[in-house]
Amino acid sequence: MSSLSSAAAQHHHYRRQGGGGSGLVPLAALIKEEARTERRACAGGNRICARDEDAGRAGPGEAAEGTRQRPLLRYGCAAQSKKGEDFFLLRTDCSRPSTSASSSAALPHPTFAVFAVLDGHNGNAAAIYTRDNLLNHVLSAMPRGLSREEWLQALPRALVAGFVKTDKEFQSKGQTSGTTATFVIIDGWTITVASVGDSRCILDAQGGAVSLLTVDHRLEENVEERERVTASGGEVGRLSVIGGAEIGPLRCWPGGLCLSRSIGDIDVGEFIVPVPYVKQVKLSNAGGRLIIASDGIWDALPSEAAAKSCRGLPAELAAKQVVKEALRTRGLKDDTTCIVVDIIPPGQKIRPPSPPKKMNKLKSLIFKKKANDPSQKLTKQHSVVGIVEEIFEEGSAMLSERLGHDSNSGRTSSILFTCAICQVDLEPSEGISVHAGSIFSSSSKPWEGPFLCSDCRDKKDAMEGKRPSGVKVL
Fold first, then answer.
1. Residues 58/110, Cβ–Cβ less than 8 Å
2. pLDDT, mean of residues 439-444
3. Is 287 exposed, middle or buried (0-12, 13-18, 19+ CB in 10 A)?
4. Rounded Cα distance, 272 and 223, in Å
5. CB-side exposure of 51: number of CA atoms within 13 Å?
6. How many whole angstroms separate alpha carbon 278 and alpha carbon 184?
7. With contact defined as beta carbons under 8 Å apart, do 98 and 107 qualify?
């Protein structure tokens, strides 16, 4: 078992009988215990919650990511537990297959880093299952033999498939818990974020500009999600009490969930979907800082305040400071988890402090829109210093829009009859196009891939409100 899995297992094991917040060992204490174990196991003495890493080792032929050296990562994690339903993932050694024909088995495979925050509700089973399985499901949806550029281009679609597969498999267990998921992949200077729910990831770029890399899927604030849920057959309203008064945030009924997207939650209807919002950006040579946290942070601190509270601190202290500031502002009313990741230019050991913002810099000067079309190639030119290049952004809940088309890709011929979500092999007569049934779309081509198995097609139709979950078409 990995040290991270061990820490999570201890967190689950140390939930004491008797209920209440006081019956829980703070997750931060377990992290410290795991850090001591990690120091004993590693000659270098690096802690699991504070490490210097390459932002993914480069493979043969891509050592400089074009002309730039890959950055270093410095990260830290801090948490305080109230319910025992927050979990996280810290991985800096994830490998993708080498793509160079001249590479040998002795050479290191290119790597990338993964950081995730999972905020469970109605129990912790969905959060634990997602932590343990989501990465593998995303990687299983990636085509083989891709160059690094093609691999990054394919990530948004693979993330959608991985989220939906994780949800489908967890729901098959019959457990009623659910979880948010904010899942961050860092490959060199490129950051790809996929999220459902209200755990958030922000980018504090050099120059002091703070930008959201996620969208909160809360029914109270997100008008588009309210409209989607009601159009799919859900009912949105507040909790009614005796006398007819309505209290609390907007919720989806049945079930009473205040989120419109999550993993799990089999008891609240399929219109609560696991299809993530995905955003991909490329940093300039100046680097930046990511803050990934559960709503225990964001209910207490606005994004700008969280970023400002920890500027000038190294990542491991910054994570602690954000949690401390949230607790000072609101108290421990919910599980509170924060990961800080510094993406540091090579040759520097710590992230230089951001200078104070001058006047109010327009976001158009900070973000340069690159492309919303996932089929468009990544640029080979690099961002100038001080610019964050936006490569991809998509938040639609429609699988036909998120999984795209396979007809023009020569690589897909060998996997033409593999379900795009669960990756099971299909006979030619079994595959159902993800575009079939979109009769109102002028671009509908039901003979084109990607294809779904019958179970995944049923899930797709249920999520889109075309029929109740579990109802089969004969």
1. yes
2. 45
3. buried
4. 15
5. 18
6. 10
7. yes
Angstrom distance (rounded) from CA 126 to CA 120: 7
- List C-alpha distances in Å: 179 to 36, 117, 118, 276, 331: 29, 10, 6, 13, 22
Q: Which pTM was predicted? A: 0.78
* Percent of the chain residues topping a pLDDT of 90: 48
Per-position b or e across 135-173, b if 16+ CB within 10 A of its CB: bebbeebbeeebebbbbbbbbbbbbbbbbbbbbbebbee
**CA-to-CA distance for 153 and 158, rounded, in angstroms?**
10
What are the distances in angstroms from CA 376 to CA 155, 373, 380, 402? 13, 6, 12, 14
Q: How far is CA 142 from the centre of its chain?
A: 16
Alpha-carbon span 256 to 234, nearest angstrom: 11
Asked if omega into 355 is within 30° of 0 (cis), the reply is no
Q: What is the mean pLDDT of residues 371-380?
A: 38
- CA distances to 128, 161, 272, 352, 423 from 276, rounded to whole Å, are 18, 9, 11, 32, 19
Tell me the C-alpha distance between 19 and 192, whole Å: 38
Contact 36, 54 (CB under 8 A): no
Measured distance CA(288)–CA(343) in Å, rounded: 5
- Spatial separation of the C-alpha atoms in residues 119 and 25, rounded to whole Å: 17
Rounded to an integer, what distance in angstroms lies between the CA atom of residue 4 and that of residue 246? Answer: 42
Q: Roughly what angle, to the nearest 10 degrees, separates helices 148-171 and 125-140? A: 140
Q: What is the C-alpha to C-alpha distance for residues 31 and 329, in angstroms, rounded to an integer?
A: 23
CB atoms within 10 A of CB 69: 17
Q: For residue 400, what pLDDT is reported?
A: 82
Please calculate the CA angle 214-216-222 and round it to the nearest 5 degrees: 130
State the helix-helix crossing angle for 3-13 and 27-41, rounded to 10 degrees: 140
State yes or no: pLDDT of 423 exceeds 50. yes
250 three-class SS: strand
Counting beta carbons within 10 angstroms of the beta carbon of residue 308, is it exposed (0 to 12), middle (13 to 18) or buried (19 or more)?
middle
